[in-house]
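Please check this record.
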Amino acid sequence: MKTSLKLNRLVACIGAAAVMTGCASMEGKGGDTAMGSGIGAAIGAGLGVLIGDSTEGALIGAGIGAVAGGIVGYNWSAIKNDVEKSGASDLGVAVTEMPDGTLRVHIPSNVSFESGQYQLKPALLPVLDSVARALIQHPELRAKAIGYTDNTGSLQLNQTLSLERAQAVTGYMANQGVPPSHMMDEGRGPNNPIASNDTPEGRSLNRRVELFLYAVKP
């Protein structure tokens, strides 16, 4: 019964995405990509919730949102290799092509920030330099940085810190020449943990910034 209900809602969301992107296209070509991407993100987020709170569910939702919003597929091989060669592997920064067509740069907090701080550690800068080069050389690319914390401390402080860390990443790349309009940042505090917050090791894994690269229609 629950599966049937989710499927019905899924169909409804996809239909809504088609209608809204169609309306966006009628508004004029200048705003198609921006409006479509916003609609796609909203629909994708909704679908992720409908499918489930798991990582898989979130990715499926993001993928459908990308289709609805006009994000296009991309060959990430060269950029992925460049980021990895910048020292990412040595730092434990994982670079992964995701099922939704994005490239994720997973940045653990222990190599990027001091505890409770949002100033970038120097060791991470070569990795961000390589990402910035890709964004500058390929103007069709966009980036979104999402900051996360563990669940210790107040929710408000964690929310603020997660946003400040995401902004530190995009702010640094803007200083390297990436157009600020090509980047977004978001803080999600302790939401979407990838490990248990019951152990020090798990909390360390949850403190992170995830940087997503994606391509939009020219």
